[in-house]
Amino acid sequence: MKDKSIVPTQREKVMREDDFLVSRTDLKGRLTYGNQIFIEYSGYSEQELLGQQHNIVRHPDMPRGIFKFLWDTLHTQKECFAYVKNMSRDGSFYWVFANVTPSLDAQGKVEGYFSVRRKPKSQAIATVTEIYTNMLDAERRAGPRDACDASLAILAGLLTQKGVSYESFILSV
Ligand SMILES: Cc1cc2nc3c(=O)[nH]c(=O)nc-3n(C[C@H](O)[C@H](O)[C@H](O)COP(=O)(O)O)c2cc1C
Question: What is the value of pTM for the model shown?
Answer without folding.
Answer: 0.97
